[in-house]
Design a protein that fits this description.
Strand content: 5-15%
Number of domains: 1
CATH superfamily: Aldolase class I
Bound molecules: ligand V47
Distance between the termini: 36 Å
Number of helices: 14
CATH topology: TIM Barrel
CATH class: Alpha Beta
Helix content: 40-55%
Shape: globular
CATH architecture: Alpha-Beta Barrel
């Protein structure tokens, strides 16, 4: 299919030509695409951008998560996971319990351990360094992708040291990448409504900027489909694109769809799969400088993930091994999220792409 085969107005056609010629789109182009471009055309453009970056390949990895605690200082209204320290559903694993969790999953083929949890008021940066150190002692070959910018800012500020010094301490303990969580939505007004007491957008962006300057690569996310407008989503993408222009430290961008089960914004409902397709496509088209866009299957479900591979995603995350509760507690389809490598490969192949195993840094793994 060619661009001229689409029955579209001249403004949309012009933006389409720019995208196909690797010209960056503006915020007003993005808004116009969202409002006026037919869905198949968005899929066509996003797939063209995806192919220019990763050809016919789609990535997966062999990973699991460690969620040390669901006790959290902050009160994000979208969170279905946080509990007060006295709740019967609260957990706060000791380092020994974390070692047991890791030992149970310490298969030689795992390449990444993703550690993320609540911001527990009692823990210190030394405790988190020790946690990373112990995980590395059990699985020295894995990359540890750990802690959202919000967790990092809290532990580093509490230690009274600079972000540079704190991130270097964690790096020296074995942290090699930072996940994208905590970004939510950067628009300050919307952010103050959905996560009133959490770190602000500037703090999130600063932690990632400092990490990039130190050579620590990171991911970025957006939480979409709640009370934000399309303009707020584009503003969020713009701030990611601007930071990426400075140091190229983001590996992947992950649009996270708001799931509404069991939290204090449940009445909002969830957006449709059409909106998921549009959000994935717009992210791929707008973020011309971010190498990978991830369709995170534990949150989207397997069927939607497969569908989104035709809207610009080139990564589906990994095996997980029933190790994360953030999405199951928020109502995701898979209540015990686990995929075998064969299933991951099957999902990618059904969408017409070639599945490629990667490590945290998108190096291909040839077994
Ligand atoms: O920041 C919490 C989101 C994030 C809900 O970097 C919710 O590879 C939807 O960032 N509905 C944490 N989303 C998880 C995260 C992540 C996940 C997978 C891979 C990577 C990566 C990062 O989860 C939070 C928040 O935006 N979240 N509650 C909810 N009800």
């Amino acid at each position: 299919m060619k661009l001229d085969d689409f029955d579209i107005c001249e403004d949309i056609k012009k933006i389409g030509y720019n995208v196909l010629n690797f010209k960056r789109i503006t915020d007003s182009d993005a808004l116009l695409l969202w409002d006026k471009a037919p869905l198949p055309f968005l899929g066509f453009l996003a797939s063209a951008v995806k192919r220019s970056k990763s050809g016919n390949e789609v990535y997966y990895n062999r990973n699991f998560h460690v969620e040390p605690t669901n006790v959290c200082l902050f009160n994000c209204r979208f969170c279905s996971y946080k509990r007060g320290a006295d709740s019967p559903d609260a957990w706060n694993y000791s380092l020994e319990e974390i070692e047991t969790i890791v030992k149970e999953r310490s298969k030689s083929y795992i390449t990444e351990v993703h550690i993320v949890g609540g911001v527990h008021p009692q823990h210190t940066i030394e405790y988190y360094c020790e946690m990373i150190h112990r995980v590395k002692a059990i699985m020295p070959w894995v990359s540890i992708k750990a802690f959202t910018a919000i967790e990092l800012a809290y532990m580093i500020e509490k230690a009274g040291i600079s972000y540079e010094a704190g991130l270097l301490m964690l790096k020296e303990s074995g942290m090699s990448a930072i996940p994208g969580g905590g970004a939510e939505i950067f628009n300050e007004d919307i952010r103050s409504k959905i996560c009133p007491d959490k770190g602000d957008s500037k703090q999130w962006l600063k932690i990632h900027e400092v990490a990039h300057k130190l050579g620590i690569t990171t991911n970025a996310t957006i939480l979409y489909g709640h009370i934000e407008s399309v303009a707020d989503r584009i503003d969020h993408l713009r701030r990611i694109r601007e930071l990426q222009d400075l140091h190229s430290g983001f590996n992947a961008f992950i649009p996270l769809k708001y799931r509404n089960f069991g939290n204090s914004m449940s009445e909002i409902g969830e957006v449709s799969v059409i909106e998921d397709m549009k959000m994935m496509a717009l992210s791929r088209i707008y973020l011309d400088n971010v190498p990978h866009i991830k369709a995170y299957w534990p949150m989207l479900g397997k069927n939607t993930t497969e569908l989104l591979l035709t809207f610009g995603a080139d990564d589906i995350d990994g095996t997980i091994d029933d190790s994360t509760k953030i999405y199951s507690m928020a109502g995701a389809e898979d209540q015990t999220p686990t995929m075998s490598v064969d299933e991951l490969i099957g999902l990618v192949s059904k969408a017409g792409y070639v599945a490629v195993e990667r490590d945290t840094f998108y190096n291909k793994i040839n077994l």
